[in-house]
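Hi, here's the filled form for the chain we discussed.

Project: internal
Contact: R.S.
Residues: 316
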Amino acid sequence: MDMIFHSGGLGFREKGSWRRAVDVERCAISNEGLNSLIGEIRDFFKEIAPFDPKQNKGTFRYAVMRTPPTDSSLSVVLNKEAEDLDAARDLIAQFAAITSARNLLITYVIPHRDVSVSEDYSIIKGSKFINEEYLKRIFRYPIQGFFQNNHDMAEQMHAYCHELLKSYPTEKAHLLDLYGGVGTFGIINSGLFKEISTVESYEPAIEACQKNIDDNKIGNVKPILLDAKRLKTLELSQPLYVIADPPRSGIHPKAIKRLRELQPDLILYVSCNIKLLGREMEELDDYTTRSAALFDFFPHTPHQEAVIELVKKTRI
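And the returned structure, exactly as it came back:
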């Protein structure tokens, strides 16, 4: 969860106004670990100089928190060009000694960029990785990278996808885990397939994927550092199955074209952008929808995660 530092507290952007923040003492749809960490941050950083997005001045920008059941992290995002960075770093180091967060990073962002992650960071406590467990598999992932932040719902989604795949004859098949991140889908389903290729373009995620493969003692998953738009350069054997879990921008058009050429028996499309998903499914007209499910990762918001089971028409 990303929260904005503002005078006297933490909050979210006011709807319709990127310049103003609404103070928030706790998150009603998150876990108690995260709400406890929110309280710690609010109590300790009362007197800080928050960043003013209108003037592009000030020091403290975001508090980025992750609190899965087995670990916790905080990234304090600072204005890289602030005049009092040394004092800010000293204050954060003091907080590191008392906070419940097991991992604490300082992240630096230049003032005119409104982002909460960066490759410019320092580790104050713990590690740059955080650990999470799904379906008895242990995963580590970069604190600065993407990972689902609703643990219970994500585990239910993985269990659902696993059960779908179990209904297919996959023992001699190849699974393409496209936009595979740190290898969650590939590793969880490794017992169902002969071989698995996990394709991801973010190098720290691929490094974590290899570590997860080793830690879970998996022998048939291969991590591949590759942009999805270059999928044509990758050798994939048949029969082929695909799990695609792209960002909100969807599957790259060149990757969709390649999937049409490869004609996998099944595409499990995991989407956080349902409107775009509908348009992309029109391009996959060689497939029919066998099932669809929605997972409510953010209750009381319009955001849903969809899992669409697309089967090649000639298979039916």
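Let me know if anything looks off before we file it.
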